[in-house]
TrEMBL record:
This is DNA repair protein RadA. InterPro entries: AAA+_ATPase (IPR003593), DNA_repair_RadA (IPR004504), P-loop_NTPase (IPR027417), RecA_ATP-bd (IPR020588), Ribosomal_Su5_D2-typ_SF (IPR020568), Ribsml_uS5_D2-typ_fold_subgr (IPR014721), Rubredoxin_2 (IPR041166). GO terms for molecular function: ATP binding; ATP-dependent DNA damage sensor activity; damaged DNA binding; hydrolase activity; zinc ion binding. PANTHER family: DNA REPAIR PROTEIN RADA, DNA REPAIR PROTEIN RADA-LIKE PROTEIN. Plays a role in repairing double-strand DNA breaks, probably involving stabilizing or processing branched DNA or blocked replication forks. DNA-dependent ATPase involved in processing of recombination intermediates, plays a role in repairing DNA breaks. Stimulates the branch migration of RecA-mediated strand transfer reactions, allowing the 3' invading strand to extend heteroduplex DNA faster. Binds ssDNA in the presence of ADP but not other nucleotides, has ATPase activity that is stimulated by ssDNA and various branched DNA structures, but inhibited by SSB. Does not have RecA's homology-searching function. CDD domains: RadA_SMS_N. Keywords: ATP-binding, DNA damage, DNA repair, DNA-binding, Hydrolase, Metal-binding, Nucleotide-binding, Stress response, Zinc, Zinc-finger. One of its GO terms (biological process) is recombinational repair. Gene3D superfamilies: 3.30.230.10, P-loop containing nucleotide triphosphate hydrolases. It holds the Pfam family AAA_25.
Amino acid sequence: MASRSNGKRAVTGYRCTECGWSTVKWVGRCGECQAWGSVTEVGQPTARTTAAPVGEPARPIGQVDMSRASAETTGVPEFDRVLGGGLVPGAVVLVAGEPGVGKSTLLLDVAARTARSGRTVLYVSGEESAAQVRGRAERIGALADRLLLAAETDLGTVLGHVEHAGPDLLVVDSVQTIASAEVDGQAGNVSQVREVTGTLIQVAKSRGVAVLLVGHVTKDGSVAGPRVLEHLVDAVVQFEGDRHSRLRLVRAVKNRFGPTDEVGCFELRDSGIVGLADPSGLFLSRSAAPVPGTCVTVAMEGRRPLVTELQSLITASSLPSPRRTTSGLDASRLAMILAVLEKRSGLPAGTRDVFAATVGGMRVTEPAADLAILLSLASSAMDRPLARDVVALGEVGLSGELRPVPALGPRLTEAARLGFRYALVPEGQSDVTPPAGITPVAVPDVRSAVEAMGQLCGSRAAAAMEAATA
């Protein structure tokens, strides 16, 4: 008589221990990461899921306790701004960024400030020894009695530290260095990262512990590891900055407890990393006299307006194919603006070398800065400085028209606060009520904007611009 099955059936498959790629038959080389000898046999038991006892019955949504989702400050206002007010107990936040950008320094400062507020913090370092972390803590003034430090790379040992210390905040630096003995493969591969992250999320939710995970990024800027990692955590915070600049920007890519359009600004110093409540001054040059090829705009980083100076240089080229070099700007957008400037205003630029950059390491990619880029190019081509008390806002179309920009009111308010008197804006937005101290000048197209800027610069500059565009 045939035996009755118990409802489970073992399905044999093969999976790569390096990247998690699966196949129904064995192969010597992984079809995804091209690693040799990494495909091993795994059993995939399949069974129907049955109903389980309910621990807490469902209740009306209006009766749900909101106190469990209240954020607690980290002591770093710029970091709290990005998180939406602070860290929520049980939340898991992934902080990603390139090596050396300052992730560990920032989180060590956050851990120390949280510990000084009376909460227990456990800092687990998988990349550096405890002595190295202690040295950095002394340098940035991050020593605290309730800040506990452990240098571990085994997931089981980390869970043991959590069980013994009972922290309110857990910092893991980094998730790619922690490995589980229950999963095959080296630390940092897809299977290990998925297992480590899933376990830490379960601990955070069950114990009400806020968790900060440090994650490395790949060459293209995405978070290293499986894409599902970003879906598992509650928030993904991107740490950006040029290592040759002091400026660091922290922006939320995903946030279940707050907005994703906030940006925190920090300055990296020898004594640590310091939040900048008013960073606009970092993006303006300090030249005493007006210089040709510069124009100021107001860029929006999240909901924060930042006054930014754009610089351009157009010079004769000795190459058959002129150079187009950018720093902090989109190269393809610069090429489009150059074509519009030459076609609609008559300024020759196609046979010259063009260099364009932002000041202070700021990266500007929004279309609202098109007009400022165009005017800086025109100023450099004519070797005439523009007015220092004017900002330019507007998106440039291929036909030379100027299109409206979002959040014009906050941009004008920030420009007026820093002492700018005039603002070139698209004609369709002339009805926006300006703040006191600044006068909007509505211009319909590129040619009118060049002429208006010339009139604001003075009679000599206006004559030069009219002669150049005739």
